[in-house]
From TrEMBL:
GO terms for molecular function: ATP binding; ATP hydrolysis activity; ATPase-coupled polar amino acid-transporter activity. It is found in: Cell membrane. This is ABC-type polar-amino-acid transporter. InterPro entries: AAA+_ATPase, ABC_ATPase_HisP-typ, ABC_transporter-like_ATP-bd, ABC_transporter-like_CS, MetN_ABC_transporter-like, P-loop_NTPase. CDD domains: ABC_HisP_GlnQ (cd03262). It is an enzyme of class 7 (translocase). It is a peripheral membrane protein. Belongs to the ABC transporter superfamily.
Length: 251
């Protein structure tokens, strides 16, 4: 329950289906995400994890079923969709920063263009967020001058600048060199502690154990199992999940 007593989930997915041609990538998905919850989605590659994540802000359309965000069925297009996207932050595997804009400009672009925020206010907020993710000193550099880990932290600051109700993370560390992964995960763990609603598709099992309220295991386009991190990692209920864990936790 949130402070105002709202117990309705922020996200409700009901019988969601998605095809890419003959490939059935999401099969009758039923899932809720509560306000303030950190939901971590794991599973083998090609299991539908990223597609699931991308349907919540309609980067991927669905072929059947229903997705409700904050009490509203996802709009198909137009202003309603733009409003939805401004309320759902997204952090991608590739950082998707504008190469010709400084770090500060990347972070202020959404608030000034979409939210019509005054430049001075957006600048102040951008610097607060860059401080929060540990790269305020890089504000006037360009993305190419930053490491991958720093660029991903800019992407997180950019998502936060829109004051979203939720942030989707689609494998945010998989493009990073190993030594940069932890600096990004640390920022995400901080967000989780602050109560940000998050859906995180990741291969980082340590993050799932530390930060998740719930782990969802997907394979072959279906949710095979969901549980608390403790229960999932120590007492997986399905053969499919146990097989997956035996392969990744022994390496």
């Amino acid at each position: 329950m949130t402070e105002n007593g709202d117990v309705t989930p922020l996200v409700q997915m009901e019988n969601v289906n998605k095809h890419f041609g003959a490939l059935h990538v999401l099969k009758d998905i039923n899932l809720t995400v509560s306000r303030g919850e950190v939901l971590v989605v794991i599973g083998p590659s090609g299991g539908g994890k990223s597609t699931l994540c991308r349907t919540i802000n309609r980067l991927e359309t669905i072929d059947g079923g229903k997705i409700v965000f904050d009490g509203q069925v996802l709009p198909e297009e137009g202003k309603g969709l733009a409003r939805l996207r401004s309320e759902v932050g997204m952090v991608f595997q590739s950082f998707n920063l504008f190469a010709h804009k400084t770090i500060r400009e990347n972070v202020t672009l959404g608030p000034t263009k979409v939210r019509r925020q005054a430049r001075a206010a957006a600048d102040t907020r951008a610097m607060e967020l860059l401080e929060r993710v540990g790269i305020a000193a890089q504000a006037d550099k360009y993305p190419a001058q930053l490491s991958g880990g720093q660029q991903q932290r800019v992407a997180i600051a950019r998502a936060l600048a829109m004051d979203p109700k939720m942030i989707l993370f689609d494998e945010p560390t998989s493009a990073l060199d190993p030594e940069m992964v932890q600096e990004v995960l640390d920022v995400m763990i901080g967000l989780a502690r602050d109560g940000m609603t998050m859906m995180v598709v990741t291969h980082e099992m340590g993050f799932a154990r530390r930060a998740a309220n719930r782990v969802v295991f997907m394979a072959d386009g279906q949710i095979v199992e969901e549980n608390t991190p403790d229960e999932f990692f120590t007492n997986a209920q399905t053969e499919r999940a146990r097989d997956f864990l035996s392969k990744i936790l022994t390496h």
